[in-house]
Structures are given as C-alpha cells and as structure tokens.
Amino acid sequence: MDLFTQQAKAIADRTRIRMLKLLENGELCVCEIISVLKLGQSTASKHLGILKRAGLVESRKNGTWAYYRLPEGADSRCRGYLEFLAANLSDDEQIAGDRKILGQVKKKGCSVAPGPDDRAAAIRLPMRPVKARQPKGA
User: What is the pLDDT of residues 41-57, one digit of tens each?
Assistant: First the structure.
C-alpha cells in the first residue's frame, strides 16, 4: 500500500505529470526538461527524485549529466499509472506546448549537456566578478 500511495502522490502534481508526458517520447537529459518546463535545477531534481522513488522513472548518469526515461521493466501498478497518463491529456494545451518546445530544444541542442562530438565539454557560463568580503570590524 505504501508504494501505491507514493505513486499516486507522485502523479498528483502538475509539474511531475508534465515531466512524465515529456518522457513518453523517450529519454531526456535533465537540461532538456529544465529548458522545456522553465524550472530551476534544484526544483527539477526534487520532482524527478520523487518520480524515481515512486518507480515511475529510471535514470542514468553520463559524466555529470543525468538522463531520465520511463521504466522498461515497471511493475503492473506502475505500468497502469503510466498507461493511464499515456491515454489522457493528449489534447491538453500545456502538454502540446511542452512537446512543441521540446522539439525546438532538441533541434537547437542542449545548452548544457555535451554533444556527440564533444564528450568532455564543460558548462560555459558567463563569469561575474566576486566582491571580496571585508573582515568584521574593518
């Protein structure tokens, strides 16, 4: 009963439903999910962690990048939840919009994850100067 409740709670959140609907088309890098849903990294990780603990997604790491997909060998209850989601919301405007944005993100390429020819790529973010802290009493 605990796993059932955990799975039910996991799909009772709009953001997590949107994540699962995106993953119906295959594995995605976290950066792609973040780009489509316009989430912060920590928020996306929190939601993906809930889905993973509920058994609704699987993950793998490739260097510092994490990829998520729907589970291949899901138990019957998990499959039931995923089949229910797959059969519903196909006409939802937000889900359709997410899929459209995902297509654009995939065409443009992930701005964070390495491409197939750049396995050792580093995240290149603009640097801001850091102000030195003044010691107390100075």
Answer: 999 999 999 999 999 99
Measured distance between the N- and C-terminal CA atoms of the chain, rounded to whole angstroms: 61
Q: What is the pTM of this model?
A: 0.76
Rounded to whole angstroms, the Cα distance separating 31 from 94 reads 19
AA identity, residue 76? S
The span from the CA of 90 to the CA of 2, in Å, is 29
Spatial distance between the Cα atoms of 80 and 114, rounded to a whole number of angstroms: 35
Q: Which domains does the chain have, with CATH numbers?
A: 2-108 (1.10.10.10)
Q: Which residues contact 82 (CB under 8 A, 6 or more apart)?
A: 20, 56, 70, 74
